[in-house]
Amino acid sequence: MSNTSTSETTSLVCANCGKGEEAGKKPKACTACKLVKYCSRECQIAHRPQHKKECKKKAAELHDEKLFKQPPPNDDCPICMLQLPKLESGSTYMACCGKVICSGCVYTFRSRATKKEHDKCPFCRTPPPYSGEEMIKRYKKRMDLNDAEAIFILGCYYARGENGLPRNQAKALELWHRAAELGNALAYSCIGYAYTFGRGVEVDGKKAKHYWELAAMGGSAKARQNLGLIEAQAGNRKRAIKHWMIAASCGISKSLESIKSMYKIGDATKNDYAEALRSYQAYLDDIKSDQREEAAAYDNRFKYYESAL
Could you tell me if 98 and 161 lie in one domain? Predict the structure, then answer.
């Protein structure tokens, strides 16, 4: 008698025909649930009626495990070495060198530089583009290097018809998909908005949610705030709170306020709100600097956090 356990056996043989590697075919795991393996597509189809219910349940569990995982912090500013803010206005992308620099460092350099140096990149010291055409050339040069941020921003220019580019939603979506595949979470978020409002595509709530989930898993806190609203409207209050708890820990004040509102009507606990408030404040402490405070006070475009309502 074999000493191999049932779990070990099922991981080595086809769930439908029971054949393993010894039969010349290496079984491959079900891509949805990873629970069972099949030696062929035909065996997978034949076994589907028996496996469907368990597969869907496990696949949903795996999806939620990934969806509600706390996202990693942003990269650090290459100048001050402090974590870059989650709020897009808290940093600036430099098309000359591809660096993302926090608003505090941009403001500090410009306020201290001579008139001749004022608009140069504070990292590589390259002068600013002299026209919209020159700016687009720089972005396209970065795009040729597969720079996800440059590709994403070009998509935004096409979506709005800015800097000499024609308004072209189809081109914007094409670039956003490419940027998203290279790791830009905001691109997925923009695709979600496109499906929500029918910009270049048919309105499709399911697809919008799908892309917002991809954006949230990639670190987009605003996309997670939207997911919380979707779940709350569907009556899934626990899922909404889970989304908002994560978004609050990434500095989204609207999520903090949403949890507070849920607490007031009894759909969230006092501990939920207290934890959200602590994580929100901890995030602000992590990204705060005197330079960023000065920049935000000088110009609202340099704002690096949302004030709690």
Answer: yes
Question: pTM of the prediction?
Answer: 0.85
Per the prediction, the chain carries an average pLDDT of 89
Report yes or no: 132 and 163 within 8 Å, Cβ to Cβ. yes
Contacts (Cβ under 8 Å, ≥6 apart) of 14:
20, 25, 27, 37, 38, 39, 40, 43
Q: What is the pLDDT of residue 198?
A: 95
Q: Total domain count for the chain? A: 2
Range of the domain at 42: 6-67
Q: Cα–Cα distance between 87 and 192 in angstroms, integer?
A: 18
Q: Look at residue 48 and tell me if it is in a domain.
A: yes
Q: Is residue 87 part of a domain?
A: no
Token pair for 234: 């569907």
Q: Is residue 86 part of a domain?
A: no
240-281 confidence digits (pLDDT tens): 999 999 999 999 999 999 999 999 999 999 999 999 999 999
Beta bridge pairs of residue 76? 83
- Per the document, the length of the chain is 309
Asked whether 180 and 188 are in contact (CB, 8 A), the reply is yes
CA distance 72 to 75: 9
